[in-house]
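Lab notebook page, bench 4
Experiment: in silico fold of construct C2
Operator: M.H.
Input chain length: 258 residues
Purpose: comparison with the prior construct
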Amino acid sequence: MLELYGEKLNSHLIIGTAKYPSLNILKEAIITSNTSIVTVALRRLSPEKKEKNQFWETIKNLNVRILPNTSGCYNAKNAVETALLARELFATNWIKLEIFGDSYTLQPNPFELLKATEELIRNDFCVFPYMTDDLILAKELINLGCEVLMPWGSPIGSGKGIINPYHLKIMRDRFPKIKIIIDAGIGAPSDAAFAMELGMDAVLLNSAIAQAFEPIQMAKAFSLAVECGRLAYQSGIMPESDLANASSPTHGVPFYHV
């Protein structure tokens, strides 16, 4: 089981709720994925609209943990204000903290992220920080009290997968007790499996399911991929070798050496 801030969850897959072709497809994708957590962008919702009320009713009836996020914020002040509103609306102190620093790549701003994290933890939030794969930033966030890190695999919605596995592996090795969730850039189920094979604790994705030709089938594919990658990591993946190693016994076999 996945344990985040003292809460045990059945799935290592977290999915977003945006960009789906229809509300019904979103609902079926969530069910098929077996996820325990869905993320919701508070800033893009207008509670007074009827269709948004239908959205809320659908999500609430699925019995999944809601992880609100601060998507769309570009500074610590706005992110903290959004988090406070989310806590009041959803009755949860969990917050996925997103503060963008660049509108083209949506790369997180590490300086504003640290400022917002410090204030939110001081206000009893459990912070899930969306960050780059920077080791020093990871150390600072942990020092502030984060028990979870959410480094990107690649830019949000790019579908490029894991572009810097070396940094993620170093982060995993350096912080074995911290939960690490890959957030952003996942395109194919194989990307999710690879992230789990690196030792990540979970994978968060949205567009890879929502924008698939068959989102419900893709949700199932990602569910299986995350499970397979996790099992592979726990089983111990064989080390790579630059030379061939015959799997058949060589005793008694004549060799011709050139």
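Observations: The first helix runs from residue 23 to 33. Residues 60 and 66 are 9 Å apart (CA to CA).
Next step: discuss at group meeting.
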